[in-house]
Structures are given as C-alpha cells and as structure tokens.
Specification:
By secondary structure, the protein is an all-alpha fold. The chain has one domain. Helix content is 72%, strand content 2%. The chain contains twelve helices and two strands, in the order H-H-H-H-H-H-H-H-H-H-H-H-E-E. The protein has a two-stranded antiparallel sheet. Helix 2 crosses helix 9. The two termini are 19 Å apart.
C-alpha cells in the first residue's frame, strides 16, 4: 500500500469516527428529550392536583411563555438571532399549529375519555406513521430494519402496560387520540423543510413563539379566570411550571431538533418510544405502580427495538487515489 493510499485511508477513518461521534451525541440528546417528556407526567399531575390549578390551555400557554421569555433575550444578547428566511413563515406557523397546539389539545382531551395505558400505546404508534409519511411526501425508500425496530418497540410499550391495558374506550376518545398521532406526524414531516436552515434553538424559539399565537386566544376564550388566577398559584406550582418550561419545552425540544437534524425524521421518531420507559421506571421507583416482570421485559424490548431501528449495515467503500494508481482500497464504514 502506497503512502498516498494510507493517507487517504486515514482521513476516511477520521471522517468516519467524527460521524459516529456526532451520531452518538444525537442519540444522547434524543434520549434526554424523550426522557424529559416522559417525566413531565409527574410535574403536570402535581400542578393539576394543586388548588387553584391552571387549565390545560393555561398551563401550556405558561410553558410557552417561559420558553419565549428565556430564548428571545438570550439570542439577542448573544447576537445569535436568526431572522426567518423568505417563505419559511408558513412552515413555522404550520409546525406550531400541529405541535404544540393541536397535539396537546387532542392528547389532553383524549385522556379524559380513554384509559391512560391505551393512550400510551396509541401515541407509541407515531414512529410507525412517520417513515410512511416520509416515503409518501419525500419519496424516500422505506428501510425494513427501521420498521422492524419500531414494531418491536411498540410491542415493548404494550408489554410495559401489562395488567393495566384496557381496550374498552370511548370511540370519540380514540378518534381524538388519532388526531394527536396525526398532528405529531405532520409536525415531523414539516420540520424536514426547515431543520437544515436554522439552529435547533432557533427552531424551538419560533415554534413556541408562534404556538403562543394559537394558545393565548384559546386560553382567554375557554378559561376566563386564567389571568385572575395567576397570583393565586402556589410557589410549588410556579416552580413546576418553570421546570416544565425550561426542561420539557426549551431544552427537550432543542435537543430533539438537534437529533432530528442529524439523523433524520424516521430514526428520530423511533426515540419517542423511550418516553414511556422513563415514565414507568419513575413510577416503579417511587412505588406508585406494582412491580410486574412484564414491565421490565417491556422496557428491554423497547430499547432493543431502538437499537434495531438505528441499525445500518456496514458498507465497503472503494477509494481510488489517482488514475495512475487505480487499485481500490476496501474501507468498512
């Protein structure tokens, strides 16, 4: 092997290591994001158990306000503000319409009519819809290993709900819940349009800012006492609202948008099934749910499905240095 070939091979290996490092960081950020969303259940429940408690629309509005109050001044002070590119306003308005607005309204509305365990299972089908949506809208080929991994993860979610899952539900609740699934799917498909044009923090800022455009009028119309009740909230309630806004909205969505940008819509969507793993692990640790061996097996199945979904077969790349030295080098990637 000539010295020139060795240099080319070394450069390709360094490039491959750099790509693997970026993927690993993306995976960790996606796990962090879905973990925050899974744990948000506890914070939200504590808020709704308080008296007075904010309505669903008021709570989400306050979360979005927290994000906007932090991100807008921060981006301006750091001179990192990115103005919207021409033609992108419609995409941000659509993204914010589907999530957080429609998704949170549908999901929360369905919880009052559908068993919570069944809600988790149906929401877990979002990663299955996304690859088919990407294939239909963007003409990308479906990856068999990705679909297999998602199906395995969904099976794991069902196993985690062992003993708690009831298939009897209000048909209207199921319809509304499917609306949440479609809203989340549409959000990811539209995010593809702008993910490469802005930094993740910028996307999070605009997403929450435009989300307020939908939520503030909705809150004022449906909850006339929303503003007058603000001074009555306890310190604990305000603390939990800040935690939801900073961790579950600002940091989680920024981390998810970064991972989404690096590995794509379909593979990023597969991480959503990690969320119920965090939720179940937390309730088991604090003793709010009885231990069942199927729950642990379900967690393992979800994680195994995630590994399968992210699997990429190694390819051999042929590297040719020059026309005068055309013999190829096999490079495993």
């Amino acid at each position: 092997m000539t010295k020139k070939k060795k240099n080319v091979l070394l450069q390709d290996k360094k490039r491959h290591c750099h790509q693997m490092e970026k993927k690993l960081i993306s995976y960790l950020l996606l796990i962090f994001a879905t973990g925050c969303w899974g744990l948000s259940f506890f914070f939200t429940r504590e808020i709704f158990n308080a008296s007075p408690a904010p309505s669903v629309t008021a709570l989400v509005t306050l979360r979005l306000l927290v994000v906007s109050i932090i991100t807008i001044p921060m981006l301006l002070l750091l001179r990192q503000w990115e103005p919207l590119r021409k033609g992108d306003l419609k995409w941000f308005l659509l993204i914010s319409l589907f999530e957080p607005f429609l998704y949170h309204l549908c999901e929360t509305g369905a919880v009052s009519m559908v068993n919570a365990s069944l809600v988790s299972v149906i929401v877990a089908t979002v990663p299955l819809f996304v690859p088919f949506g990407v294939a239909a809208v963007y003409k990308q080929k479906l990856q068999p290993m990705l679909l297999l991994g998602i199906i395995i993860s969904i099976a794991g979610v069902v196993a985690m709900m062992a003993g708690d899952l009831s298939w009897q539900a209000n048909p209207m609740g199921i319809v509304i819940l499917l609306g949440a699934v479609l809203a989340s799917t549409a959000y990811m498909l539209i995010l593809v349009k702008i993910a490469n044009n802005y930094r993740p923090i910028t996307i999070t800022m605009y997403q929450n800012l435009f989300g307020l455009v939908y939520f503030i009028p909705c809150t004022l119309i449906t909850d006339a006492e929303a503003v007058s009740n603000l001074p009555l909230y306890s310190a604990k309630t305000w603390t939990l609202i800040l935690v939801l806004g900073i961790f579950c909205s600002l940091l989680a969505y920024t981390a998810y948008n970064h991972g989404f940008k690096q590995i794509g819509a379909s593979k990023a969507a597969a991480f959503m099934n990690v969320s119920p793993v965090f939720t179940l692990a937390a309730v088991l640790l604090i003793g709010q749910e009885p231990f069942h061996w199927l729950k642990i097996i379900g967690m393992v199945i979800v994680i195994a499905g995630l590994f399968v979904a992210q699997y990429e077969p190694r390819k051999r790349q042929q590297v040719t240095v020059s026309k005068s030295d055309p013999s190829p080098i096999d490079l495993e990637k």
